[in-house]
Amino acid sequence: MAVNGAAGQNAANTANYLYGDLNSLSTSGLSAGSVSSQDFLTMLTAEMQNQDPLSPMSSSSYITQLSALTQTQSIAEMVQAVQTEMQASEASSAVTLLGHSVTAQVGGGNPPPTVTGKVTTVTSSAKGPVLTLTLSDGSTTQVSLANVTQVS
């Protein structure tokens, strides 16, 4: 569909500016969900500068967009806080297992194979706490806290 006239040109300019900005954001390593408040304000300013003067952006639309930004930022902060709390809780749970005998799944299969050993060390990894088990034959193995099935 072709758009004619000054309004069409303003809409095209706005679209080019906004999509150009989003494309440059994604090529710089940012995802669409990680647009900062500064990026949002830049895009909103461009939208307001390039809007059709005969059909300006309504104040309710502006407030809706700012409200959405605020809610998105608040939710992101809450998710981060919950993730941090969960990581601290997992680390605390793993440390309480020091000196205890645990059984954990290792590898795949149906049923998956298990090992049983005494927890001698706890380390942290990107996937969560890792327990080092000393097995009955004196050897050691590492298992993720998520794979522990029994504590005795």
Q: How many β-strands, per DSSP? A: 5
Q: What percentage of amino acids are in beta strands?
A: 15-25%
| Class derived from helix and strand content | alpha+beta
Helical content class = 40-55%
Question: What is the overall silhouette?
Answer: rod-shaped
Enumerate the spans where pLDDT stays under 50 for 5 or more consecutive residues: 1-12, 14-30
Largest sheet: 5 strands, antiparallel
Strand order of the largest sheet: 4-3-2-1-5
Number of domains: 2
Order of helices and strands: HHHEEEEE
Number of helices: 3
Amino- and carboxy-terminal Cα gap = 71 Å
Please compute the radius of gyration using only Cα atoms.
27 Å
The overall pLDDT, averaged over residues, is 78
In short:
The chain is an alpha+beta fold. It folds into two domains: 84 residues; 60 residues, SH3 type barrels (Roll).
Would you mind describing this structure in some detail?
- The protein has 152 residues and is an alpha+beta fold.
- The chain folds into 2 domains: 5-88; 92-151, SH3 type barrels (Roll).
- It has 3 helices and 5 strands, in the order H-H-H-E-E-E-E-E.
- The chain has helices spanning 5-27, 37-49, 59-96; strands at residues 101-105, 114-125, 128-135, 140-144, 148-151.
- A 5-stranded antiparallel sheet has the order 4-3-2-1-5.
- A hairpin with a 4-residue loop joins strand 3 and strand 4.
- Helix 1 (5-27) runs antiparallel to helix 2.
- The protein is rod-shaped.
